[in-house]
Amino acid sequence: MTLPSSYIAAVERFRTHAGITACTGQQKPTSDLHSFNSIDEAFAAVDDVLDCDAQPVGDPIVPMGDGGKLVTAQRLCSQHVQVDLYPDPESVETSYRILADSRQGDINVVRGRNWMVVDFSAVASGNPSTKNIERLTTKLKSEYSAVGAVPM
Asked: Phi and psi dihedrals of 121, rounded to 5?
């Protein structure tokens, strides 16, 4: 499978972006958001809502910050939907801002206190996702955003 160049560029920006600017929008205080103790706990909760694929193809995209990897653990829910666990809320925010500033196409994100579910389907394939990750917000005390849109 050949990935579109816009997807590859988004991945590279996600991995290496620095000097991030603030995002706009109303956000819940981090303390109001759900957290998980392990990637297995996070994945099980996400799987319960989204019915993740048994054996998704591919590897998660690893978000990188100034000090290296931002995540502590990751799992794929489907080929383009990943569950990321972070060591702290600041790492979640940094990763979120990288995605928001990528301007490579729509990336759907649900985030909690120390985790995020990221859907790269539209960027990777040009098609909408088969997983409606927005449903996670009602079950997992989290917030949904569509970020990374290309300016018109």
From this structure: -55, -50
Q: Please tell me the total number of residues recorded for the chain in this structure.
A: 152
The type of residue at 47 is D
Token pair 């409606």 is at which residue? 132
pLDDT tens digits, 48-72 = 999 999 999 999 998 888 888 899 9
**Rounded Cα distance, 95 and 84, in Å:** 10
> Model-level pTM greater than 0.85?
no
Could you tell me the two tokens for 151?
Answer: 């300016």
Gyration radius of the chain over CA positions: 14
**Strand 115-119 with 107-111, pairing:** antiparallel
Q: Among 62, 60, 55, 64, which residue's Cα sits nearest to residue 16?
A: 64
| DSSP SS3 for 32 | helix
pLDDT tens string 1-37: 444 444 444 445 444 333 333 333 445 556 689 999 9
| Residue whose entry in the numeric block shows the structure tokens 């990897």 | 69
Residue ranges of E strands in 86-135: 107-111, 115-119
- Alpha-carbon distance of 48 to 27, in angstroms, equals 25
